[in-house]
């Protein structure tokens, strides 16, 4: 198959040969015409190469150079290809401009950084909200945002969760890093000051109200005990007992609300120390064995010496809440087994019971405040409805979460895991 370039060249050669043949026939100069033809043919090619070179080295290769034959076709194809490339480049440029324009309109600050944390680009809100400058492109983000929490988050490489940062003394930001496009990262900061302040008002209100209710309730409870001990008509026995039980319940709710407030306020967040979980579980076992006179079979499988970094008292309340729920929500004689062990992923705690179980639709809502699967049952068992909310918040502070698997009528397993980085082994064989 002849390409159009070769066809053009052949047409030119045949035309030129006819002319040369006519000239030689007329003049009879066959040899010199042939030699002249070869010289002119080579000369034409050399001249075309020179023009082609000049044309391709020029700034614009849009217009065709005045070439003939094969070279005309070659220059046409080159310029066609060039136009297609330019169109593609225009499209890419347009897309990137469109993306930049959209990122400018985002209400959040967006900063792109490379694998070494050098800033690649940033949007306008990043200059307003984070105090970055356009000139900061090319600088390391650590040199500009220096908060220790941020530096630790950036270094950790674990960006599944977001962090909260206070910048400019007063504004509060939720900062999240997302990996994208091989080794690049997007840092997205959203101003949550108003939301945070609203949540703070709610937290303060709950904490203050609970605190204010504590003393009157203690007084009430004291007088009720006094009345119970004083000589009284027998028909007052039941009302006094009910009132006394209700004040105990109200006190338990208030204590749980105060615990939740202090976890949320972060006042118990301060110190992370080595927590001797086996020791805590042994203590709980002794406490529960005394209480569980109802006849639950308790089974403890504890890996000795397996400690974690965390907050001892809050963690104790997690284990206690899960254990007491397993006992309260399973029938007498049921088996409750507690496991504390480690594997290559971290340390794991679980409590399994052979109790009532929970239908799947309730499971996602269990950690909501005052959420109860069965309100009456919860009241009978003396629950406050806040136990699992406390568990959730404490686990959040330990980068962990509650895992629940349950089947109605068969039983439930509540558990949580702690990352390997938190695990501390004190016994070699642990
Ligand atoms: P409560 O103080 O009412 O027990 P929690 O927050 O501890 O509140 O638990 C929330 C609800 O989850 C409980 O009311 C109960 O319905 C359900 N629940 C918790 N643990 C178990 C369990 N081991 N088996 C069955 N239901 C459970």
UniProtKB/TrEMBL annotation:
Residue ranges that the Swiss-Prot or TrEMBL entry lists as coiled coil: none
Its biological purpose: Member of the two-component regulatory system PhoR/PhoB involved in the phosphate regulon genes expression. PhoR may function as a membrane-associated protein kinase that phosphorylates PhoB in response to environmental signals.
Keywords assigned: ATP-binding, Cell membrane, Kinase, Membrane, Nucleotide-binding, Phosphate transport, Phosphoprotein, Transferase, Transmembrane, Transmembrane helix, Transport, Two-component regulatory system
UniProt cross-references to CDD domains, sorted A to Z: HisKA
Transmembrane region(s): 12-31
Annotated NCBIfam families: phoR_proteo
Name of the protein: Phosphate regulon sensor protein PhoR
UniProt keyword RNA-binding present: no
Enzymatic reactions: ATP + protein L-histidine = ADP + protein N-phospho-L-histidine
PROSITE patterns per record: HIS_KIN
Gene Ontology cellular-component terms listed: plasma membrane
Domain of life assignment: Bacteria
A Gene Ontology BP annotation from the UniProt entry: cellular response to phosphate starvation
Enzyme class: transferase
Pfam families (UniProt xref): HATPase_c, HisKA, PhoR
Enzyme Commission number(s) of this protein: 2.7.13.3
InterPro entries linked: BphY/WalK/GraS-like, HATPase_C_sf, HATPase_dom, His_kinase_dom, HisK_dim/P_dom, HisK_dim/P_sf, PAS-like_dom_sf, PhoR_N
Domain Histidine kinase: start-end pairs: 208-422
Gene: phoR
